[in-house]
Amino acid sequence: MKPRGFTLIELLAVMxxxxxxxxxxxxDLGRLLTNIKVRSTVRQVSALLNYARGQAVVHGIDYQVxxxxxxxxxxxxxxxxxxxxxxxxREGKTLFIPEEVTFKTEGELTNPEDxxxxxxxTNPEDxxxxxxxITFYPKGTSSGGEIIIEDFRxxxxxxxxxxxxxxxxxx
Length: 171
Description:
Blueprint: H1 8-59, E1 63-68, E2 73-80, E3 83-86, E4 95-96, E5 103-105, E6 131-136, E7 145-149, E8 152-156, E9 163-167
Antiparallel strand pairs: 1-2, 1-6, 2-3, 2-4, 5-7, 7-8, 8-9
């Protein structure tokens, strides 16, 4: 009758193989986690844009998605009596972009003469951060614009207001 079980040498050989596989896979883990953060951020920003578009159509007033490139944040404002007021977190939350994720726009700010905004998300008292926004109108149209997050481009069409996510490699 043969003895059951594994010898110490067999166990060490298997553990060595497992350790080698883990050592080879570990460097990709960091890249994988960053990729997950980027994709999550892209989904959240495009969802915020789509939410603002839907609210503009449903409520019949202008909604803006404002973004602070330096403070790495986005939030929604709505037009009330010719001024834009910030929504509460219950109505539409503020998104904060992770530090390791690149967040920018294509070209110049849409409001270069007024590159600061009193509704700065990082500190309402300090309005020194450059801001930009995309406005959605009650008929479903928008001011249009692009937000770039790593190698993804979120494009908002002016005529239809449709939000489209493109990967740089697809362009």
